[in-house]
Design goal:
Elements lengths: L13 H16 L8 H27 L1
Helix pairs in contact: 1-2
Length: 65
């Protein structure tokens, strides 16, 4: 038996990553607060992960030139 929570894996293109990044960034800016401050931390972590993914796309594109 595993203690890890279930997870999913997605294959996303650059446009999908960019859209998710913009959406998470917008929600973070407008974050209304709430009973669970962990939500804001999770959103910040997600934004960081999406930023890293966009940078990875940029590096791959630069490498192809």
């Amino acid at each position: 038996m595993s203690d890890q929570s279930p997870s999913l894996q997605f294959d996303l293109d650059r446009d999908a990553i960019r859209l998710l990044h913009r959406s998470v960034s917008f929600y973070l800016e407008k974050w209304p607060g709430g009973p669970d401050p962990q939500e804001q931390q999770s959103l910040q972590q997600m934004k960081t992960l999406l930023t890293a993914a966009l940078l990875e796309f940029s590096l791959e594109q630069d490498g192809e030139r």
